[in-house]
Amino acid sequence: MTAKIVLFGATGYTGARTAEAMTRRGLRPVLAGRSPERLETLAQRLGGLPTARADVSDPASVRALVDRGDVLVSTVGPFARFGAAAVEAAVDAGAIYFDSTGEPPFIRSVFERYGPEAERSGAALLTAFGNDYVPGTLAGALALTEAGVATASVHTGYFITGGQGGQPFSKGTLNSLAGTLLEPMYAWRDGALLDEPAGRRYRAFTVAGRARPAVSIGATEQFALPRLAATGVAPRLREVDVYLGWFGPASKAVHLGSRVTPLIGRTPVLANALTGFAGALAARASDEPSAAALASATSYFVGEAFGSAGQPLARVLLTSPDGYAITADLLAWAADRASTQGVQGTGALDAVSAFGLEALTAGAAEANIVPIPSPA
Q: Which of 167, 274, 320, 349 has a Cα at 20 to 30 A from 96?
């Protein structure tokens, strides 16, 4: 029997694109959100889909969306402020949960706080199932598998080229970035997460014909790749790092700034001033990114495996256009497959452990995430 699919946050930018991607696959999700009027407008545009009102300020309304085995997809962000209600509803119901977050502290809370609760209830939680951070997880897993037992470390990187013609990110994405500026990030070393500020590590990757700088962040790879390695693929894995290359030449400044981030975070006046300034900039942005900027952008995702002496063992390079299309198509694919075939396991899962590497590679290809020869 096919499980019910609920899309919570359907009328936001990412939510609406996800609803469109779902209907292109022939799915009929329940569109859920705060505004019945906006939900009805979207529902009629997409062929008369069912709707349900739900608001994070009323957790019972979110819990009423799903029953055991249903699929709940949440695009309600910033997730640090608004994400808990959907996760808690899925855990309580024993449902399968996906979200579109790119916020590392929220990702960590799903794995460390909600994961054990989900195991007990039979729920399955898949956070950050979009442009952040499925493609890098896939690239890292493919590189790790190719390099095999000799692998000691894996690095993944996220890059965008082009993007000219206006605002490249939605207001929701910018609000999420503003909300995590001073939050602690993490790396993975010798079987455990290591706390560190964003940007602590700095390196360059060869992408699209030249070296591109990037700085370290927390993501899902620090959870997913050690799990894959522990299955016997790479028992000597000791290091997983994730790098973000969106800042271009400013990456060095972000790296140097990481030295004072902890101090700012411990100083309320400075912390409030910085987050307030970032929030004010985000508030001035348009709700939607520029169509011209998205059309001219190309995304790249790099996975590199290294041996114990730092020697390169394997490199995988994936590419795709338009990060928001990636997120919408990945969420639609995952909801479709989970509603008909379920997922592998319970608790806090990652894309590889939930679907397997072969199925995930095929699903990514449906979202136009494809390999290209390396180097490129």
A: 320
What's the pLDDT band for 332 if we cut at 50, 70, 90?
Answer: very high
Separation between Cα atoms, residue 98 and residue 329, nearest integer Å: 13
CB atoms < 10 A from the CB of 112, how many?
12
Report the chain's C-alpha Rg in angstroms: 20
For residue 273, give the amino acid letter: A
Beta bridge partners of 230: none
- Using DSSP's 3-state secondary structure scheme, residue 25 falls into coil
pLDDT at 278 over 50: no
Closest CA to 43 of 51, 54, 55: 51
Tokens 């790098």, residue?
243
- How far apart, in whole angstroms, are the C-alpha atoms of residue 183 and residue 197? 7
User: For the chain, what is the largest distance between any 2 Cα atoms, rounded to a whole number of angstroms?
Assistant: 60
The one-letter code for the residue type at 101 is T
Contact, 219 vs 104, CB < 8 A? yes
At residue 212, the 3 state secondary structure works out as: strand
108 is written with which tokens? 């960590």
CB-based burial of residue 190 (10 Å sphere; 0-12 exposed, 13-18 middle, 19+ buried)?
exposed
